[in-house]
Design a protein that fits this description.
Length: 102
């Protein structure tokens, strides 16, 4: 059963600015959007690159290596060269702390 892990402070998340965090060996990108905080795999499914080093706009997370885009809410691959969706993780905020279930 997945556990909740404290990964950041809510105040550390700027709107549409990816933040990379780790839970054990799992690399996760956190992004704050107007409707909440989302967590997806931080590793591009096309070729190894950290998505937290990329760009986010209008809920689309862009890989810094080949500009593949993903929907931050669903993990869906939106543009080539990525064809495989990202893993997504549940997020909750309690007393200003951000938790991800992994």
């Amino acid at each position: 059963m997945p556990d909740w892990h404290r990964v950041a402070e809510e105040a550390d998340l700027k709107p549409e600015t990816p933040l990379g965090v780790r839970v054990g060996d799992t690399q996760i990108a956190l992004v704050r959007l107007e409707d909440g905080i989302y967590a997806v795999s931080d590793v591009c499914t096309h070729e190894y690159a950290l998505l937290s080093e990329g760009f986010c706009e209008d809920g689309r997370l862009e890989c810094p290596l080949h500009q593949a885009c993903f929907d931050i809410r669903t993990g869906k691959a939106l543009t080539e060269p990525a064809e495989v969706d990202l893993a997504t993780y549940p997020v909750k905020v309690e007393d200003g702390a951000v938790f991800v279930r992994v």
